[in-house]
Amino acid sequence: MKNLLFVSWDSDQSNYLETLFFPILHGLQKKGLIQAHVIQFSWAPKAKVSHIRKAAEDLGINFTHHKVSKKPFAGLGALQAVYKGVFLLKRYIENHGVEIVMPRSTMPATMVNRLWDWLRKNRVKVIFDADGFPIQERVDFAGMNKDSLYHRLLSQEEQKMLLHADRILVRSKKAKEKHGQAIGESILPKIVSVANGRDAKHFFIDKEKRQAARESLGLEEEHVLWVYTGSLGPQYRLEEMLALFKMYWNKDRQARFLILTPQQHVDLSFLPSEIKNCISIQAVEYDEIPAFLNAADLGLSLRKEAPSIAGLSPIKTGEYLIMGLPVVLSPGVGDTDEILRGKDFAYFWEKGGEEGLMLWLQNLKSHNSAEIREFAMNYFSLEKSVEDYSVALEGL
């Protein structure tokens, strides 16, 4: 068993650490492969940090939080956190006998890049969780200028980490190919594609929960419920989801659309009032999501077309499928085309394909949820993630 230090950089809204990575690290601990340590850099409030700390304690994970200041402005606070983080990581590695460091994404990689000589001298291995294409994602959806100094600096840090890391984790075969093309094929043997898996004991089909949740939403069993979970930024195509639902609603006036999102305000003012009355927007805790997914008949997982989506493995797609839901999704997202293309429970929607989608939706209730779940377990389960991460740890 080796001491592994996972390093993350998260926003105040992110729950990836406690809902995705903690279960994976715990699974690796149960296999006797690692003892997990986590250092999180974030600007989350104290209540959020306390919640994460409790989740770590419950799973036997050592957790440390380092606050990133947003004052006097966000950029300076981030620079200060990175500078201090280098010394914090070095001290933690020394004090806890850490043998493997796993920085997730660009900012933690920047800290670890300052320690390469010392890490090699002390025989500390590095697994870089490349996390899709985060820099390209900023260009695609956050307005980052590809010619800016900031973009150039972040890209240099990422490339340095890709070259020097002992292992690299990606979320798709496409990401592996693109990194190989950008850096050189010599890095391909050390790249491992891993799943963003969900715990099937948490996400499971339950008829009683379905009935209770549907009653709370005022739905009869024959009524069709669409569901979307997650953030609602421009990359998630909210207006197009609503347009598709409106088209379906015109054929089935009993249909409803449930949106589960952490966002405080969602603007639906552009919709006619009769449609707005059929759309419910709720903020729920992570533990409550499976109950509402049980209530649903269809899951939506759309992404705006952009270069960065090739590196993704959308968690919500896996959640829907493990819950036995048929899905409507976008093409070109990670490896989902390869995994789901041709499956009767998955419809790849592109603009202009509305008529085909409406035809497909006519058979929505005919899909076998148990069969969908059984298929999904091979690609989107926590067990698959733990298996993939175990492969990445081999030989380190």
How would you describe the overall organization of this protein?
- This protein is of the alpha/beta class and 396 residues long.
- It has two domains: 2-197 and 383-393, Glycogen Phosphorylase B (Rossmann fold, 3-Layer(aba) Sandwich), CATH 3.40.50; 207-380, Glycogen Phosphorylase B (Rossmann fold, 3-Layer(aba) Sandwich).
- It has 17 helices and 13 strands.
- The chain has helices at 16-30, 46-58, 74-96, 106-113, 116-121, 134-141, 149-164, 173-183, 207-216, 238-249, 273-276, 289-295, 315-322, 336-340, 354-361, 369-380, 382-393, and strands at 2-10, 34-42, 62-67, 100-103, 125-129, 167-170, 191-193, 225-229, 256-260, 279-282, 298-301, 327-329, 346-348.
- Strands 3-2-1-4-5-6-7 form a seven-stranded parallel beta sheet, with helices on both faces.
- α1 crosses α17.
- The N and C termini lie close together (11 Å).
In percent, how much strand structure appears in the residues? 15-25%
Give the proportion of residues in helices.
Answer: 40-55%
Return the CATH class of the largest domain.
Answer: Alpha Beta
| Number of beta strands | 13
Q: How many domains is the backbone divided into?
A: 2
Q: Tell me about the biggest sheet?
A: 7 strands, parallel
Low-confidence runs (pLDDT<50, min 5 residues)? Answer: none
Rg (CA only): 22 Å
Provide the residue-averaged pLDDT: 94
- Total number of helical segments? 17
Determine the structural class based on helices, strands and strand pairing: alpha/beta
CATH topology of the largest domain: Rossmann fold
Intertermini distance: 11 Å
